TrEMBL record:
NCBIfam families: GOGAT_sm_gam. Residues 38-69 form the 4Fe-4S ferredoxin-type domain. Pfam families: Fer4_20, Pyr_redox_2. This is Glutamate synthase. Keywords: Amino-acid biosynthesis, Glutamate biosynthesis, Oxidoreductase. Pathway: Amino-acid biosynthesis. Gene3D superfamilies: Alpha-helical ferredoxin (1.10.1060.10), FAD/NAD(P)-binding domain (3.50.50.60). InterPro entries: 4Fe4S_Fe-S-bd, DPD_II, FAD/NAD-bd_sf, FAD/NAD-binding_dom, Glut_synth_ssu1, Glutamate_Synthase, Helical_ferredxn. SUPFAM superfamilies: alpha-helical ferredoxin, Nucleotide-binding domain. The gene is gltD.
Length: 485
């Protein structure tokens, strides 16, 4: 156990500071400063090593949190990273980007601030990289079996790493020019610098995973060709079809999906020239929809020098305390302030867009909105509350509807479920034998931690399909839903 008196002697929850807003919005670097190591270790020492560690079930990966908290508290980074990697291929992604449902399930959190689990996680992996403890783990012998993984987001990468280490020959097909999925072109540099991703990809390449970038499966190679050339296929395509808003004026210039704006911003932030880049510079920006995607649009707009940034949310503003219907250890709906919100702009809740108003050049100039109240669970406009706000760039961040049904899915003939996601059985296999699915393509729009858990579990399904049995871990079943997020 970490310090038996830790939670009594260190009652404060301490996290690293965010860099000052005026400084950080002038660059694209990560927003957090480094935390003093002694302070981090004292925080790890607050873990009570509970008899029933609810944090395990809060974490979709089943991370062995009290075990690595103990080692981190002692400064034994070698054992800490061994325990952390036992359940999580990529703690450097989750340690930066996870909403940490483990922390809202922490037992200490019942009557004191929860242990800073996510911060201990990211510090452990960063120490491990610094101390040379993260090395390639190639398989001892090859199975002679081949697997094609389509899509290189966290689900595809986790499946590929597990399967490569199990001895299979794995090729990851990615239609973008570089691997990473939303980790590379969705999530901005200020949340996770891409060098963090590249460092892990180097390890994977050294282990033997092959990356085929710039390959749009369904176009550059057909589903049938994949089936013929590989013994198994994992579809980790993500949920890339965005929700749209069909209000009058939708056709005006200056109205874009978040995922048209963010990838360009990410490329430009890394010094690439982007032809006809959608820019927030000098504009009144309105982001429709909250969540991570909305926050990333806000932070990117601030860094591009927007004149103003307004974010609209149809739901009412959540409270700052747990609602009684969402008791510990669930993940509550709370008013949260992401780093991007701290950087400026206005958040307007319980409103709906009724019209986009154009200028003489056919570009959006304003957005008309109305307040809404929820009657019988449906947002209903409140009469007399209509108003206009300036909007020269409108970004939709209203979620995603599922994977693209055409192309490779059609060619392979996999069944979709009622939510347009790829249907799978308890082993993550689709309706087509030998074709598996992991991540947002099967689960629907979700989180990185779930994508990694699905990639790991699907890898166990593939391994068993190829060899008759598998010792790879299966952290979750396809039907598992969060206790929490
Ligand atoms: C802007 C944004 C910010 C987010 N921020 C967070 C966050 O902070 N924390 C968090 O936990 N979650 C966040 N999420 C959600 C998280 O990123 C996703 O849940 C996660 O990336 C899903 O992983 P995945 O591997 O299933 O799919 P993806 O990451 O979407 O990867 C799918 C990959 O498949 C490729 N692909 C698709 N079709 C083909 C094809 N036919 N041929 C070849 N390749 C193909 C795509 O190009 C893509 O690279 C965010 C999502 C968005 C959109
Ligand atoms: S992956 Fe997320 S839920 Fe799991 S321990 Fe890390 S921060 Fe917590």
């Amino acid at each position: 156990m970490a310090d038996p008196q830790g939670f009594l002697n260190t009652r404060e929850r301490e996290l690293p500071a965010r860099r000052p807003v005026p400084v950080r919005i002038r660059d694209w670097k990560e927003v957090y400063e480094e935390q003093e190591l002694g302070q981090l270790q004292r925080q790890a020492g607050r873990c009570m090593d509970c008899g029933i560690p609810f944090c395990h079930s809060g974490c979709p990966l089943g991370n062995l949190i009290p075990e690595w908290n103990n080692f981190a508290w002692k400064g034994d980074w070698s054992d800490a990273i061994e325990r952390l990697h036992a359940t999580n291929n990529f703690p450097e992604f989750t340690g930066r980007l996870c909403p940490a449902p483990c922390e809202t399930a922490c037992v200490l959190g019942i009557n004191q601030p929860a242990v800073t689990i996510k911060q201990v996680e990211v510090t452990t992996i960063e120490r491990a990289f610094e101390e040379g403890l993260v090395t390639p783990l190639p398989p001892e012998r090859l199975s002679g079996k081949t697997v094609a993984v389509v899509g290189s987001g966290p689900a595809g990468l986790a499946a590929a790493q597990q399967l490569t280490r199990a001895g299979h020959t794995v090729a990851v097909f990615e239609r973008a020019d570089k691997p990473g999925g939303l980790l590379r072109y969705g999530i901005p540099e200020f949340k996770m610098e891409k060098s963090v991703l590249d460092r892990r990809l180097e390890q994977m390449s050294a282990e033997g995973t092959r990356f085929r970038n710039g390959m749009n499966v369904g176009v550059d190679i057909t589903g049938r060709q994949l089936r013929d050339r590989y013994d198994a296929v994992v579809l980790a395509l993500g949920a890339t079809v965005p929700r749209d808003l069909d209000a009058p004026g939708r056709q005006l210039g200056g109205i874009h999906q978040a995922m048209d704006f963010l990838p360009q911003g990410n490329r430009a932030a890394l010094g690439e020239h982007v032809e006809d880049q959608i820019l927030a510079t000098g504009k009144h920006v309105v982001v429709i929809g909250g969540g991570d995607t909305g926050a990333d649009c806000i932070g990117t707009s601030h860094r591009q020098g927007a004149a103003s940034v307004t974010s609209l949310e149809i739901m009412p503003q959540p409270g700052e305390d747990r609602p009684s219907g969402q008791p510990w250890p669930t993940y509550p709906m709370l008013y949260r302030v992401a780093s991007a919100h701290e950087e400026g702009g206005e958040r307007i809740y319980a409103v709906s867009t009724t019209e986009f108003v154009g200028d003489d050049d056919g570009n959006v100039a304003a957005l008309r909105l109305t307040e809404v109240e929820f009657l019988d669970g449906r947002p209903t406009p409140k009469p007399g509350t209509e108003r206009e706000i300036p909007a020269q760039l409108v970004l939709f961040a209203m979620g995603f509807l599922g994977p693209q049904g055409s192309g490779v899915l059609e060619q392979l003939g996999v069944d979709l479920d009622e939510r347009s996601n790829v249907r799978r059985d308890k082993n993550f296999m689709s309706s087509v034998p030998g074709v598996f699915v992991a991540g947002d393509a099967g689960r629907g729009q979700s989180l990185i931690v779930w994508a990694i858990a699905e990639g790991r579990a699907a890898a166990a399904g593939v391994d068993a399909w190829l060899t008759g049995s598998s010792s790879l871990p299966r952290p979750i079943a396809p039907t598992d839903r969060p206790l929490t997020v």
